Amino acid sequence: MNPPALALSAHAPDETLALGPQGPVTAARFFADAQSVAEALPASQYVLNTCHDRYLFMVGLGAALLAGRPTLMPSSLAPESVRQLQERYPQLLCLHDGQERPEGLPAWPVAPPAAGAARALQDAPLIEANQVAAIVFTSGTTGAPTAHLKRWGGLCADGEAEARRIGSQGLAIIATVPSQHMYGLESSVMLTLRGGARLWRERPFYPADICAALRAAPGPRMLVTTPFHLGALLAAQVALPSCERLLCSTAPLPVALARQAEAAFGSPLTEIYGCTESGQIATRRPTQDEAWHLLDGVQLDVSAEGAWAHGGHVQIRVKLSDHIEPLDERRFRLGSRHADMVNVAGKRASLSALTAQLLGVEGVTDGCFFLPQNPAAEKQAGVQRLAALVVAAPGMTPERIMGALRQRMDPAFLPRPLLPVPALPRNATGKIVAKEVQALYQTLCQPRAR
């Protein structure tokens, strides 16, 4: 029996699939553009899609699917990361839109024919459900990135499950996260292709750009963002356009920030829980309920050894990195990540909880606690200490911040040292990358030459 095949998009040919300053794009045009690019692709086994334009990213993704080539989605495009990709994945071709081309990779522009030069396809191309659509990599925030296969059928089921939960039909999606990230792929690209949404082509980052995109996109609108981007947007104190829905993920969302966002926009905020390995598995509205609700078909098995997600769009059994407290068959509470827990002087604490205390100090605009990797001085002393990086307002000295922390936490967890920095090393989704934090720490702690 032949494996089932699924359409490249669930949109009807005459429905709008993408929006932007260039004007609306129909699904029929998208089908034709993807087919045109697929037919012109040079020989390769894998593709790396760096398109910033979300519509062109979708065209490149569709072309790769039609050509039977998996799309690699690494966590970094640093030269060393690209070199490792080339070694591991032969005949790698970079699809780009002129904005980002990693050096040393054969490149091919995603350049569909001009409007009117190609006949729009009336039927959506079909892709086998078991075809490997993407190879996605963990973010590397807690260690070395690892690769995970995503098949077309699983990605479609993932987008459809989110669409049912969110009610995405007809929404204009404005996303601050890149399409190349698992959350961005699910909640902008797949929610469009499988959930009937319309995708805004640009990726706004700064508050003024986000507001401009929200004003330009026809309603109803949904902002797909992260706690970091959302916090920066609200802190900018700009006039916010209307936005009917808010979606947030990639890091723990403080309830206070969720309340502030809902009040500012007058719209409900939905938070997503998941990981690269499993994809999204649950949602909640944090201002209304601390419990997470599993997406359709997804199941959890919890034991003393940990928690595993499976079923629905989760195509393999995935062990989760967080402490899970089941409430019933469909709901659970979320605890700290296993790797997030530290033990200092026989006392246990969560790094994220300590970071939350740091961010709660008035005058602190950003910061993080972390465990230094084998610092020589502490190793010799036989003691393990936490450290912290902090971004603070003018006049907020490390001494003042330490004084505030002494009122908030056990002395065993006070950071030694507390290092002021102009900004934290964050990736495109606002996550703090562990190895960059460690490198910055080592640089700041090096003895200064006299």
Structure commentary:
Residues 375-382 have low confidence and may be disordered. Helix 8 links the parallel strand 14 and strand 15. This protein has helices at 27-40, 54-66, 79-88, 152-166, 182-195, 207-216, 227-235, 255-265, 351-359, 376-381, 398-406, 434-445; strands at 5-7, 16-19, 25-26, 46-49, 71-73, 92-96, 107-109, 126-128, 132-137, 147-151, 172-175, 198-200, 221-225, 245-248, 269-275, 279-284, 292-294, 299-303, 306-311, 314-319, 322-326, 331-337, 341-344, 347-350, 364-370, 387-392, 418-420. Helix 1 crosses helix 2 and helix 4 (152-166) crosses helix 5. It has 450 residues and is an alpha/beta fold. The strands form 6 sheets. The protein has an 11-stranded mixed β-sheet, with helices on both faces. A 6-stranded mixed β-sheet has the order 7-6-4-5-9-10. Helix content is 29%, strand content 27%.
Secondary structure: elements and pairs:
Blueprint: E1 5-7, E2 16-19, E3 25-26, H1 27-40, E4 46-49, H2 54-66, E5 71-73, H3 79-88, E6 92-96, E7 107-109, E8 126-128, E9 132-137, E10 147-151, H4 152-166, E11 172-175, H5 182-195, E12 198-200, H6 207-216, E13 221-225, H7 227-235, E14 245-248, H8 255-265, E15 269-275, E16 279-284, E17 292-294, E18 299-303, E19 306-311, E20 314-319, E21 322-326, E22 331-337, E23 341-344, E24 347-350, H9 351-359, E25 364-370, H10 376-381, E26 387-392, H11 398-406, E27 418-420, H12 434-445
Parallel strand pairs: 2-12, 4-5, 4-6, 5-9, 6-7, 11-12, 11-13, 13-14, 14-15, 26-27
Antiparallel strand pairs: 1-8, 2-3, 9-10, 15-16, 16-17, 17-22, 18-19, 19-20, 21-22, 23-24, 25-26
Helix pairs in contact: 1-2, 4-5, 7-8
